[in-house]
Structures are given as structure tokens and as C-alpha cells.
Amino acid sequence: MSCHAEPPIRVGTAPPRFALVGSPNAGKTTLFNSLTGLRAKTGNYPGVTVARYEGRHILDDDSHVTIEDLPGTYSLDPMSPDEQVVATVLEAGTSGDEPLDGLIVLLDATNLRRSLGLLAQVQQLPHPITVVLTFTDELARRGGSVDVLALSRATGVRFIPVIAGDKRGVASLSESMGDVASWPKPMLPPPTDPSGVADWATSVLDSASFRAPGSDKRTSRIDGVLLHPVWGTVIFFVTMMAFFQVIFSVAAPMQDGIETLFAWLGGVARANIPVAWLSSLVADALLAGVGGVLVFLPQIALLFLLISLLEGSGYLSRAAFLMDRVMGWAGLEGRAFVALLSSMACAIPGIMATRTLPSAKDRIATMMGAPLMTCSARLPVYVLLIGMLVPGDLRFGPLGAQGAIMFGLYLLGAISAMLSAWFFKKIIGRSGVGLPFYMEMPSYRLPRGRTIAVSVWDACKAFLKKVTSIIMLTTIILWGLLNFPLRSDADLQRAGIDSRDEVAVKAFVIDNSIAAGIGRAVSPVFEPLGFDWRINVGVLSSLAAREVFVSTLGQVAAAEDPDDPVAALTNMTHTDGAHVGEKVFTPSTVAALLVFFVYALQCMSTLGVMRRETGTWKWPVIAFVYMGGLAWLMAWLAKLVVGGMA
Amino acid sequence: MRKPIHPEAVTGEPQAIRWVVDTGDLPVGEVLHAAGTLGPMMEYGVITRMFVERGSVWTWLAPEHTWTDRGPRIRDAVVAGVDADGWDVTDGSADLLRFIADDVVHGQLFTFITSHGGQISVVDATIDAVVLDFGGACADCPAQGQTLHDRVEVTLRARYPRLREVSKLASSHSAAPRPRSPLHLLKRT
Amino acid sequence: MTLAEHLGQRQCVAAGGRAKTCSLAELGCDCPAKIIGFTSDDQISRRLFDLGFAPGQVAALVRRAPMRDPMVFNVGGSEIVLRKREASRIVVEQQ
């Protein structure tokens, strides 16, 4: 057995490496942040959808140590990919080919008996161990007590009590990391069989005069309200609505601000760069690209702020508890609710929020469903199309028809998301035993400002690093497709276009661009849906971001009637193909287009984030393909149904 | 059969383990013959020395063995043995009292003693008495000294009932420096 | 054998027939009940053990979700949410 093995010998001059081991909710993330601050980097463990956090800590003598925050685990008897990673890393004694010099085990003092079980397992390994005992303040508050020194003697390893916010404990830990050789070891490792470890824990707790804490009165009282069958559910829905509203009322203005800023910068570029195509490149591609990236930041930052607050305070697990039954219908669990809810603002933070799900299968299934939730980028498209389809004063009984259809689209998105998640949950992986659902409900705690700040910063940084390149590339490519081949003044004259009429020039360029060529080329595919090549160009351009569809179509329509683009769109007729002369935007076509937008994954940024979170291109590609196919099918069905009704 | 039990190290004795377990009404002293499977372990020289105190069994392993190898078996044997008949234990032991006194002063009551400004070390032990050197602040302060003295005596007697007296060394500083317990590394900051 | 494999061989006590026992899921009230064992010996039972639902420990129902499932239990100083499916694996004896 591994307890006879020696820890790997360190060669070379790499800094000492420590791993943090502990159950979720034991305070690992808080400690990791205290030790590494913003000097942490994230990635993925190879081959799995498990995030990896590694950071640098600076000791008193200014030397560095590396600290790895292993995923939270209740046991080294792994059940999920996250726990498998922990078991593998600890068994190998190395991580990323670097040997582990010591293990820092975090144990929660308020459930010490259970925590000792994990310690007993970790003590089977040959590495030096130090224990950080957390929440001793809460233990005392709840009427419990323990003799920490006696705990150290009884277990043979040093216990360092660390209270969040109090620097002394962390200083002690830091000091001990400088001298691993002095870490005490037990005479022999404790037993791991259930009755043996129970006896060992009882004996240890007894000799440490452990008095178990009473229930947390404060938490019980708050839960009495927040988890009340009636009031609790009401408060929950109100909180979720508020959560959602904040996005629109706070993030939206910031986003508008960013868009305005970049539009202004674009104007400046156009005005000051003499070469036409270059100014277009800078304004429409580069600036628009950067602007297109930054515009997501307020949403991501805000959503992560809110999610961190919910998680840090403990309310997230209450929300998951209330929603678990409903999520269960899709084969998911309660915690998936927050990820899906976030996706109603934007799928990007929603996909990033799947990190709270312990099961990798759940994470992927949720990620496959999240883009189907109606995100805010679809709204401009919906507004435009519904406006064309339905007169503003039409009513279905007491409800306005336009609003009702909008709501219907939201509902369609939500139900599709759940069905999709259910489907993927079913087909992913070959493991027979599904992960049973269990979740700890921590006491209500005041979230630490630093943890929240780090979480928000981490999310934004990760988004910027990985996704920027994808968005920039897509924007530039699409710009190229829509603006090439370049037209000289001679070309314009030959076509009868006044080169001073910017709108007409623009329309001419688009009409004859590579994108238009592609649009015409793919029209057989979209013809059954009633799309003409101009709609195809719009759909193609919306691959960068959905709202671009509106502006692209707007440009096309403005070319035909600069004063009333909407009327132009309404009256637009097919220029070629089987339906020459007929209106493009018939009710059935508009319905098809709407439904197409419900399902198609047109957001490259979403694909980029999926790539980042899963560590592979496989899942984004699957998502793109399946949603594209589904979009076509559902759009065609919509055309049939609405066409039949008309 | 199951009983709560855990092993603790003995300072300065790398081959020794003190098994903290409920010893029931076993006599306190040096073990001449142990019950159950512990008996043969002693006979064959795997265990070279054994003591029983109130609430622990002290065992010394022969130098050619390691605790990682032998520990689990010995643990099971202790658990079974403490409830069995067939123990032959001396009525008290000066060596045992010495070990217990060291453990009390440098381990169990270490925080208590240092928080009272004290620094106690064990000078000598007989079969029913212990001589301690009360160094540090408590040497001069009669009140502190009395509190410490009483506490140490009560603690010692709970583990070694035959204890008759805990006496103080006459001078305030002992002649030879005592090795400091490595347990001081475990102290809280 | 790796540590994970070794831990995977732990046997969680399958409860034998005893009077006055029921499953944790059937506890109608918030009265404390002592855990006796599990209905089967497999990975899920081991996980429940590692969560703190160990034989000899006392568990109590704290509340149920609005649709009766899942449930919150108090065991070993912490509150754990379990679905009925998992809770019914734990055999308890009411006190």
C-alpha cells in the first residue's frame, strides 16, 4: 500500500509546492486567496472539465512557494471527476510533474468528527501534513470547544487554527511552510475502515475535550423564514427576479456606455484615417471587435459579483435546495438553476457559473443547454421581427400580442434548455452509477470582500484572456467578408452609384461582397425557411454577435429606403430564386427567423467560453452543430405551422 | 470488539507508543505478563516493555521492527487485551511515574503551565513520589506556585493513583538543562 | 493498490434486522435518530458515511423542500441535503 512509499525526492530548484486539501465549505478558497491574493492562475487539469487553481505565496524571507488549491472533496474515495483529480494528484505525489512537498489539510472545527475522517485518509499518504483548523470562532459561538494543542498531540500532526480575517493564523501557516522538515508526523497512520476510524476519531475528540457545537441559532432563525414552504419560495422568486433585474438596470447602461464610446471612437477613426478601407478596418473591425469584447464585461462582472455574494453568504445552497426538484426533471440538480438563470442575461457568465456543479457530467449538460436560454442579445432581434410580424395594438385577451409572443419565446428557450440538458445528461459518459445528489448547507456567513473581489477579477480576466482573440478574429473575418472585394470609384460609377452617397456605397459593397456570395451560395439550404440571400448575410454576420443581425439588415434596408428602414424591410421582395417578386418577410418567414434565433448558437464568444471551461473544442463544436441543426428544423416547422395558419 | 483508541508519541522514545484507551480497572504499573495476544508479543520480544496507567497502555517496540509494520496488530491486541483477564502488573513503577510526569508537564499541562509563567521540569521520581523543579516566575510567587503544584498533583494522581506526594526542588534553577519537549513546536501563536 | 482502491474496499455496515428501525427518509418528525447502518454496501453508502452519516451518530430531519423532496438533515454538527432516494439507504433507530 502507498503508506510504505516514500515521498518523491525533489531535484532541481523549483520552489516548494503545497496542495490544499479539504471538503467544500471548509474555507479552502478563502485561505487560498489569503495566501496567493491575485497571484493565482487558472487552467484545467489535463483531459477533464475540472478547473485548476495554482498560486504563488511569498514567505517572510521573500522566497516563493507554490500553492495548489485542489478541488474540494469529502473523501479520497472518489466519486466525481473532481475528486478523481484529487485522488490522482495525491497518489502520484506530484502535480504537473512537480513533487508535492507538503499537504495542508483544511478541517472545519464545527464538524470535526466528520473532518477527522478525511484527515485519517490523507494520513495514509507519505507526505508531511499540517492541518488548518477553520471556523473555530463559529465553534465557540455555537457553544462548542476544543483543545487544539491536544488535537495536535492526539493526531500527531500540527493543527493551526485560522480564522478568516485574522492574519495571525495565516502568518503561523506561512512560517511553517518555510520549514517542512520540522512538521510532526504521527507514529502510525490511523485506520481507514469505518469502525476503526470511528473509534480513532472518538478517542481523539475525547482527549481533546471536544464539545460539539449546538445548532447555529442565527442560521436556524433565518432559514425559518427563507426556507419557509410559502414565504421562502416567494422570497426566492423575488430574489431571483431582482438578481435578473439588476443585470438590466445596472449592467445595461454600462454596456450602452461602452457601445457609445466605441461608436464615437469609430467615428473618430473614420474621420481621421484617409484611406477608406483602412479606416473601415480600424473602425468597423478592430474597434468594433474590442468594443464587442468589452461590452460583455459589465454583465460578467456583475453576475459574478452577485453569484459570489449568494455563494459566500450561503444563500446559493438554499436556492439550490428549493429548485432541486424542478432541476431534477431535467436530470440536473438544484445548483444548475443559478447557471441557467444567469444565462438569461448572457450565456457566458452562465457557462462560467457551472463551476459550482460538482459533477462534470452536469456541467457539460448544463453548458449544452445554457445558450438556449433567451439571452439579452436576442432581444433586439426579437423586437425587430415581432414588430414586423405583429401590429402593436393586437391583443390576446388582456395581454398585448407582442408581449405575449415575447414571453412565449422566453418560455420556448427555457423549456428547450431543460430538454437539451436532459438529453445530454443521458448520453454523456459511460458511467453506470449516477452521482447521487448531496449538498452541505453551510451556516449563513458574511462573505469576505476579498473572496468576492478575487472571484470577479478571476472571471473577467479569464474571459478577456481566452475570448478576446476569438471575438477579434471573428469580427475581422466577418468584416473582410462583408467589405471585400473593395470597390474603386470606377466600379461605383459603372454601377451607377454616387460615390458621395455613403449609404448607397455601403449597400453596394455589401450586395456584392464575399459574404453576399456566400449568402447566395447557401440559399438552397435556407430557401425552405423562406430566407433570401440578404437574410442569409444577416445571419452570417450575427455569428459574431446576435445583435449584429439587426444592424446588418438595417444597412441593407437603409440602402433601399434610408428614411424608413422598417418599411423597407417589410416591403423587401425576393430578387432571385423561385419567389421572385414576392415579399421576403411573410409571417411564416418571420416566424421561421424568430425560431431560428431561439435555437442557433450564433455567438462566437459563447463558443470561446465553452472551450475555456471544458478545455477542449469538442463540446463547443458539438453545441454549434446540434443547435444549428435544431435551429433549421424548428424554423422549418415554424414556417409550416404559421404558413398553414395564414 | 471495538473501543475508542488512538496512539500518541512519547518524547525521547522513538520506539514507544502510548495507546490512549480506557483501561478499566487494570492495575497501574509495569507489565510482567499481558493478557491476550499481547502476551506472546512480549514473550517473543516484539514488545520489549509495557506499562499500564489509568487511561493508557505504554508499549515499546523492539528496535528491529517499525510501528508502520506492527502498529495495527498491536493496536488490535491492546483493544482486546484491556478487557481480558491474565494481566500480571507490578504495583506501581518509578519509571512509569517518571514518564507520566514528563508527559503531564511537557504535554498535557504545558499550555496551562506556560500561561502561568511557569517552566516545570521533572527532576526525579520514585514509586510513589515525584520531585519537580518549578523554574520561571512561579518559583518566586507562592500563589502561582500553589495553583500549579495542585493542578499538576491532581492530574498526576488521576493517571497514577498511587501517587503520594509531589515535591518541589529546593533551589529555583536545576543543575543540568532538561531537553525541551519538541511539543513546543505545536504551540499556538 | 492505490489509496483510492484501498478506500473503495471499505465495507459500510449493512444493517441487520432490528426492531424499531426505519430509514432516514421515513422519519416523519424532527426527533433525533441513531444511525445503525445502510441498506446496501456500495459506493453511495461509503459516500454517505464520509459525509458524516456514520453508524453510532445521531441524525435528525430539519426540514423538507416545498415539494417534499429533497430534505435537510442535521448530523455531526452540519446540515446536509439529501434526496429521498439517498436518505432511504440509511437505516436508523428512533430514540
TrEMBL record, chain A:
One of its GO terms (cellular component) is plasma membrane. The chain crosses the membrane at residues 225-248, 260-278, 285-309, 329-352, 364-389, 401-424, 467-486, 590-609, 621-642. The keyword Acetylation does not apply. InterPro entries: Fe2_transport_prot_B_C, FeoB_GTPase, G_FEOB_dom, Gate_dom, GTP-bd, P-loop_NTPase. GO terms for molecular function: ferrous iron transmembrane transporter activity; GTP binding. PROSITE patterns: G_FEOB. Keywords: Membrane, Transmembrane, Transmembrane helix. It holds the Pfam family Gate. Residues 15-183 form the FeoB-type G domain. This is Ferrous iron transporter B. It comes from Tessaracoccus antarcticus.
UniProtKB/TrEMBL annotation, chain B:
May be involved in the formation or repair of [Fe-S] clusters present in iron-sulfur proteins. One of its GO terms (molecular function) is iron ion binding. One of its GO terms (biological process) is iron-sulfur cluster assembly. It holds the Pfam family NifU. This is NifU family protein. Residues 112-166 form the NIF system FeS cluster assembly NifU C-terminal domain. InterPro entries: FSCA_dom_sf, NIF_FeS_clus_asmbl_NifU_C. It comes from the Bacteria. Residues 169-189 are annotated as: Disordered.
TrEMBL record, chain C:
It comes from the Bacteria. This is Ferrous iron transport protein A. InterPro entries: Fe-transptr_FeoA-like, FeoA, FeoA_core_dom, Transcriptional_repressor_C. It holds the Pfam family FeoA. Transmembrane segments: none annotated. The keyword Acetylation does not apply. SMART domains: FeoA. It comes from Tessaracoccus antarcticus. Keywords: Iron. Signal peptide: none annotated. Gene3D superfamilies: 2.30.30.90. Residues 22-94 form the Ferrous iron transporter FeoA-like domain. GO terms for molecular function: transition metal ion binding.
